[in-house]
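Handoff note, outgoing to incoming analyst
You'll be picking up this chain. Sequence as last confirmed:
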Amino acid sequence: MRYIIIGAGAVGGVIGGRLAGSGHEVVLVARGAHFEALRDRGLRLRVPEGELTHRLPVVDGPSALGELRPDDVLVLAVKTQDSVAALQTWGPVPVAGGGTAAERLPLVCAQNGVESQRLALRLFRRVYGVCVWLPSTYVEPGVVSAAGSPLTGILHLGRHPHGTDETARLIAADLEKSHFEAPVVPDVARWQYAKLLGNLGNALEAVTGPVDSEEAAALLRRVRAEGAAVLDAAGIAYVDAEEQGAARGDKVTLVPLDGASHRGGSSWQSLARGTGTIEADYLNGEITLLGRLHGVPTPLNDLLQRLANTFARERRPAGSMPVAQVVRLAEETDAAAPTV
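Most recent structure output, in case you need it:
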């Protein structure tokens, strides 16, 4: 199989680099300065064993590839806010022997949240979800890092909306030869919703910096409790902390990397890079959506969603709002929140 990594940033670049390092055929899709650096100097992957350079084909869109191959696997690794554009770009691409990518090829959504798979299933017949537990960083154009050891990450994988098949098992086997653990599960959504609860702190970290004070930790516990209440009200199953801990163990331990520290999560990185967008609408925003659908107030997640979007839109520096200010806003929001 050939893996086409649509969005070769922190997550996509690491997955693509690791697959290439174990001998698999990989094409990277990127744009702008990152595309130019990958094209001119290759993918530089900083991992515990050192900096690895992979000279891989890189394109800025499907036209450079012509017809796709029947053995291609599309790995969607863009942020969710960029999913629709990517799906509409790649879905109609012809595949050798007839048909289009949307009709014939597997699409693997290696992203945070749960929305991209629903978007993908409107166009693609074969959609796979991944619960991405992969601490990684976009360092600079052409350079990504992953500090996990002994495994780079754990990627639970399954069909969307449910089930498994031979394609999932083949993809998992390739990942497991590439420094990942990749359990194939029939209920990948359970793992993704559990990860969603964990990702509700991404906006808080992006706005205030590391959640390393009791004040910030207490707020984060309230945010996640609000999310859990919403999922329970919606009847959505998710993996509990005990099952997550048993699956993860000490398989992915962060180690210091020269010149490539893990400086923050995906939302923090978006603000730090000044991209102008952030994925809060599909993390905290997923909770606010479900809360409105099921009659559960979500004032804290609504607040973090709004703050994160304001920071992204106005290109405010990551981590520049004091935690105390967010806590005060949260208290005011709590007090003013209407009953849904």
